[in-house]
Amino acid sequence: MKDISLVLKMMLKEKKDILISVFFGFLAGITAVSLFAASGYLISQAAFAPPIYTLMILVASVKLLGITSAVSRYGERYFSHRGTFTILKNIRLKVYDQIEPLASRILQKYRSGDILARIVGDVESLQHFFLRVFYPPVVLATVFTATIFFTMYLSVGVALTIVAGMVVVLIVFPSIFYLFQKRTAVSMREKRGALSSTFTDYLYGFRELTIFQQAEGKKQQLDHDMHQYEEMKAKENRQLAIQEAVVIFFSFFIAVIVLVQAGLYVSEGNLAGTLLAMLFMIAITVFEDTPSMAVLPAHLEESKASSKRLTEVWEEEPRVEAAAHELEPDVPLHVVFKDVSIQYPNEKKPAVRLASFQIKPGKNIAIVGPSGSGKSTLMQAMLTFAPIQSGHILVNDKEISKIAQESLWRQMNVSLQHNHFFYGSIYENLRFANKEAGEEACREALEKVQLSHFSLEDQVLEKGTNLSGGEKQRLALARLFLRDASIWLLDEPTSSLDAITEQEIMGQIEKATKYQAVVTIRHRLTGLENMDQIIVMNHGEIIEQGTYMELMGKADGYFKAMKELENSQLV
Ligand SMILES: Nc1ncnc2c1ncn2[C@@H]1O[C@H](COP(=O)(O)OP(=O)(O)OP(=O)(O)O)[C@@H](O)[C@H]1O
């Protein structure tokens, strides 16, 4: 029950449509049974040449039942499908609401292909829960019960045969099929997950795979995964077809038993002969919709697994209470790190240990240190993307975890090591930072980053694959000139640029940020003389901090040694 709690909760929100569709389903089923029962009775009665009005009443009833059955079948389809699509919409919204605040953590834990398979494939497969798992047994049970009561009135023996048939079809068969299905479903899901992950790996890494001549091997693995998945799918379809055949065969078998049994009662004089055809028709019709019970176990297993796979994505994550404190938009940010340690999930040691420093409004700060020393992690923590293990990050005296993320990000201008570009024009990619930015402002921003040779209509391909590394960095920086923000966070913003372009663009940034704080992660140690503060990191710790002069004044300082080494290489 816990496994399908997600879909059950979403389903119960649509009680009205569910009740109406069950009502129409029952009406359609029971009128179909009555229609065939009345037809059987009509044929038998006609053989005895009864008064014309008897036949007229029977013919009219048959017609009326036919019309009612058709109309209620329409109502059943309409409301059950409407309910299904609303349930699916509710599930999509719920999944999005749960996953969105955890996105940065989840993407560290799951492969992107797997996440995609969950939020597309698993959500889609839950649409079958109501229509194929919940609904058929409920409607069948109600139709069976009503039919059994009616049949009991005619012949208790026949009614008991139908009861036995009902128990086998509604309980025994689904339970046996479920056991078979469980095994197939587990390997199906594993194969689907493997296929989806291999496929995304192949797609994202296509260029590298081709260059390193590994594409063929990966393609073979993809073919292999695809082949295995198709084989499993074919096996599952075969299994479902056999199950369906068993149920259909059994239904006819019960109808034949009813015919033989009723025939026996007639010959013994315990049943009127005119009821024979009627009982046979009832037995045939009441089992008409039972093949849906053959596929029910497969859909139940699929729904359970999908619901579980979706909920585990957010249930295993620590709960994030919606932070409610809104930062005032006009007050510049003052950020204080107090003994902050950060450890990524599944990592043995922290990426940052006991970091303490401040970012005051209007100050220029550089973070330097060897690769892997934790510089970007500090920036990720300011953006609330890195998991803080201990210590405090205060933004305008408020704990960062209590601040509504949007109000924090609104005041930040960020350029990360890898910036994302969308398929579209340069203009669209710039306006993504500020919807209000007009063409003139965008052209000026391009000029500031020395991209004035680009027109606003030029196309950017997915992930900016038609741009050079330096162009991507400059386009990412151009976005920042279009937004007002009180802190600029720049992670190696000019690492792909030549020294002259770098100097000019940094000059433009300096001009635009007279009153803003700018935190820049740097590998090159040039141009740091005017920094208000330089933070030096090594092995996840801040080992030195101060102005350029202060750090260069330390006789055996780490920064001083790094700077001297760099200078010696430049000479
Ligand atoms: N998402 C992550 N999951 C697990 N470990 C991570 C993650 N991101 C970074 N790390 C680890 O944290 C440590 C610090 O990484 P970080 O990116 O902060 O270093 P950096 O100083 O910015 O390096 P670089 O100069 O190469 O960009 C590294 O050991 C890295 O492997």
Summary keywords:
2 domains, binds adenosine-5'-triphosphate, alpha/beta, 571 residues
Mean pLDDT across the residues is 87
State the end-to-end distance. 72 Å
CATH architecture of the largest domain: Up-down Bundle
Total strand segments = 12
Helix content: 55-70%
Q: Name the CATH superfamily classification of the largest domain.
A: ABC transporter type 1, transmembrane domain
Helical region count?
A: 19
CATH class of the largest domain: Mainly Alpha
Largest sheet: 6 strands, mixed
Question: Based on the structure, what is the oligomeric state of the protein chains?
Answer: single chain
Q: Please mark out the parts with pLDDT under 50 across 5 or more consecutive residues, or reply none.
A: none
Give every kind of bound small molecule, once each: adenosine-5'-triphosphate
C-alpha-based Rg, rounded:
35 Å
CATH topology of the largest domain: ABC transporter transmembrane region fold
Please, could you describe this protein's structure?
- There is one protein chain.
- This protein is an alpha/beta fold and 571 residues long.
- The chain folds into 2 domains: 5-315, ABC transporter transmembrane region fold (Up-down Bundle), CATH 1.20.1560.10; 335-411 and 485-570, 3-Layer(aba) Sandwich (Rossmann fold).
- The protein contains 19 helices and 12 strands.
- The strands form 3 sheets. Strands 6-9-10-3-11-12 form a 6-stranded mixed beta sheet, sandwiched between helices. A 4-stranded antiparallel beta sheet has the order 2-1-4-5, with helices on one face. A two-stranded antiparallel sheet has the order 7-8.
- The radius of gyration is 35 Å and the shape is elongated.
- The mean pLDDT is 87.
- The structure holds adenosine-5'-triphosphate.
- Adenosine-5'-triphosphate (ATP) binds next to helix 12.
- The site of adenosine-5'-triphosphate has 12 residues, from helix 12.
- This is Thiol reductant ABC exporter subunit CydC.
